[in-house]
Amino acid sequence: MKKLSEEIGRNFHTDDPSAIPFDYDDNIHPETIATSSGKWQVRINVKSNPELSVPAREFNDELMASHYARQQVQAIKTKLQNELVKEFVRKTIENIL
After folding, report:
1. Domain segments of the chain as ranges
2. Strand boundaries in the chain, DSSP class E
3. Mean local confidence (pLDDT), 14-23
4. What is the pTM of this model?
5. CA 17: distance to chain centroid?
6. Is 56 helix (H, G, I), strand (E, B) or coil?
7. In whole angstroms, what is the distance from residue 75 CA to residue 25 CA?
8. Which residues contact 66 (CB under 8 A, 6 or more apart)?
């Protein structure tokens, strides 16, 4: 059995080999803060589409708050990407017809 000579998933195009964090987007700004009652609050603002913003929601621990924020950011990114694809298809069809 032959071993691979390179690492799968390694990115040699950057100086920083670490993973890109889920909140690395200037358009989507998740906030996870500790409250005075010992809970964690998550709020997500979307600059380009404020209707996709998520109002504040409280969680009992930081892990659940972070998990929720990660899921919501991924859902927002998917919606935004789908809108771009729909717009591209619409414009392509208009140009053909």
Report:
1. 28-96
2. 28-34, 40-46, 54-59
3. 70
4. 0.71
5. 19
6. strand
7. 14
8. 32
